Amino acid sequence: MEDVAEKIEIKQKFPGWREMLKPVKKFEEGRLSYLSLPKQVNSDFFKMPFGDVERDFENLKLPENWKEIFLEALKDTLEKNRAFKLFMDICVRCGACADKCHYYIGTGDPKNMPVGRAELIRSVYRRYFTPAGKFLGEWAGARELTEDVLKELYYYAYQCSLCRRCSLFCPYGIDTAEIVWWLRRILSRVGVNQRFMTISIEASSRTGNHLGLLPGGMYGAIQQGLEELKDYTGLDLHTYINKRGADVLFVAPSADFFATPHWYVMLGYLLLFNELEQKYGLTITWSTYASEGGNFGSFHSYEAAQLLNSKIYKEAERLGVSFIIGGECGHMWRDKHQFINTMNLPPKHEEWKRFWENPDLGELAEGLRGVRFDSYASGEHGWIHILEFVAALLEHRKITVDKSRNDKWIATYHDPCNLARGMGLIEEPRYVLRNVMNNFYDMPEHTIKDKTYCCGGGGGMLAEELMDLRMRGAMPRMMAVRHVYRKYGVNILLTPCAIDKAQFPHALEYWKIPIEVGGPMEMVGNALVMTAFGEKPEDRKFDLRGEPLKEEGE
Amino acid sequence: MIGVIFGVIVPYIAVAIFIAGVVYRILSWASSPVPLKIPTTGGQQKSFPFIKRTVYDRFDSPYTWWETAGRMLLEIFLFRSLLKNTRYYLDRVSQKDARWLWLFGILFHYSLLLVLIRHSRFFLEPVPSFVELLSEIEAFKGVFIPSVYMSGLAIVAALFLLWFRRIFLSRERTLSLPSDHFVLILLLAITISGNLMRYFFKADLFAVKELLMSLMALNITHAVEVANTIEPVFYVHFALASFLLAYFPFSKLMHAGGVFFSPTRNMPNDNRARRHVNPWDPADVPILAKGITVAGETYKSKKLDWETYYEMYRGQLEEIEEADYKIAPEEL
């Protein structure tokens, strides 16, 4: 945490409306994202307009007619997206959203209020697309598009984590995530992209995953997981990769293959898959081609999101699976729940169609009969969240768990923004946690479920150079965690989101809350009794972190 | 002369602008497609039968058409999202409810509704009985003489309260544009002039009704005759109201129509049951792989389909093939 001062001051500023229309000239350290390099945005697999120029923020080296291109792209957006157009017009600036943004709370910068952020582009829209703005200019809240304004748009478009918390409180449902997402798309048309997310987008468009893992690397990572499991459980486990004819394709965010604490969740997946195969004969395969559940394209633009998520249905079709299970990841589920089946044609192959005619797991493995997906999903989509899946297995008593194995943990659960506000997956994880552990406490009501606070690192904000912004943005969430830490002695923060798992260890250290971070599937893995392998509840001696399940002397 | 200008010409123009403007704005919103189904889910999704949803979940994360309609109705009649409002305090974990905005908003909008209903007596002959009844109830008929209409006073109070927010609260002051103040001032001018006319500077209301009826019947000669007989004080109120009508379609007041179009509110959260089709994307091949054209130049990204992928990483993929697509711990 050497990049962030020990003490931070939240300076709230309240300039007048005229001042708000003027572009800022001072860009705070730790809040300005680096611009993309040509190797990220001029790659064969991800080619963005004017991506061939190396830019720095002092000298944007914009194309000559950038203004025309920008306004043309703005017009295109208005014509292509009703939400964007409507949100340009109907805001009444009531201020309900103002203190709902974690970045505003953490920075005090008035342009980080959701309405302030939206006004940045709205003022340009008014100047060029409304009669009042054209004739009255400043008095109608309109302003000219200049290079300074463009810089400001970039600066603030990349201080939003697309968490949609503001949208929840807006009386018209104005969604800043939607405005910012399409604004980033407009910015990309004049060659201005953020480096952090385009590194991952480019890697994913070339190798299939954000980390740039090649098939052998992914194979090796999973193999290492199986070896660790052998050490911890003594069981000989296996799994499949790229296997044609498997029943299910499993897609996880690629961070699960390497990062910590994501790794423990990965071990949890592997235990579950082995138990299901051994006990019921349900085969689940990984894929090196569809090796990324996350989608940084969904932070950048419609087109980039589509480029990255187009592989998965194709792979499902090639492998002939019946449906897809997705792993623990937040924005992945905004993409997989709301975007993927609009951006792509769902699979049409025989196995898929047959399964979804009667989506009962019993059709694939007789012993699992009764677990059905048709109360909310269909073959037009075909994705099930791993925690929904586990919840159903628990409800139907298809797996055996021993809660006491998690007794050293006192857990709280952080709702990832996109699962809560882009999908509505709220009760399933809690259902799972209550069934696999004895000590589970929720944080205060106004900070969880649909009102959950962002971790401060979502939407492409996980970049190293944004550390100041990240630690400030994490503040509201951290205060809520500290509350349950003091009140219940919580010692682990569980979250089914890869970005959260990367952000929280830093944030907890910075805000001095000495607790661990993990994922619900880690707890499932700990508690899962591998009955098909002859394991008894008391047989397990180590948890998935390789530590003794029971403290010495207990 | 004043009567002809403000009693006949101006209202006709204002109404024409109002209708044309509102229709134009609505058509212009409707003409933009909705590329993605993006409801903001404020509650538990429809899931397995054993995952219980409360009635709030059903409206905040609607799955069916009816639930979605319910969400819209709650939003429009109860300002449900504003009702969720909280205020963040830096120095404490708890948040206090801050529903003043909701209260002022509700007060204003429902007063406005009552005022408009009462004004319908000037446009309808005979006056519908519910209008009479409503007016009598809100005036507590018989308590005050002359009767005092509550909505007329409440609307002025609500407007002042809403305006004070923008003046005295620092955040709201920062984000208020001149147009935000202007609308409030305009509405205040209209409502205050209306009240003054009601209680102090009386105008001949029978003449006013005759004027409005003949305007509506397009009986212009008669309208001109009547218009010239009405006291000028009426035209202050009437001209301001006409101006508001003409200003309406070009201002943020269009939120009245816009709220119905908001994709984050009016779409059901049923993405996994029913596919949403994007009208401008056939979704067969990724758009970037087809190429996007900016300033005359086309930028085309290479598509990583399985064949390309296989060619690129053939060696490693063949090793996986040799392992029969199975991963097991390495034998030591």
What does it look like?
The complex is a heterodimer of chains A (554) and B (332). With 554 residues, chain A is mainly alpha-helical. Chain A has three domains: 24-193, no CATH class; 207-396, no CATH class; 403-533, Rossmann fold. Chain A has 24 helices and ten strands. The longest helix of chain A is centred in the middle third of the chain and has 19 residues, at 215-233. The mean pLDDT of chain A is 93. With 332 residues, chain B is mainly α. In chain B, the strands form two sheets. Chain B has a two-stranded antiparallel ribbon. Chain B is elongated. At the A-B interface, helix 3, helix 4, helix 6, helix 9 and helix 12 of A face helix 1, strand 1, helix 8, helix 9 and helix 14 of B. Strand 1 (239-241) of chain A pairs antiparallel with strand 5 (326-327) of chain B.
Essential attributes:
heterodimer, A: 554 residues, mainly alpha, Rossmann fold, 3 domains, 3-stranded parallel sheet, 24 helices, 5% strand, B: 332 residues, two-stranded antiparallel ribbon, two-stranded antiparallel sheet, elongated, (Fe-S)-binding protein (chain A)
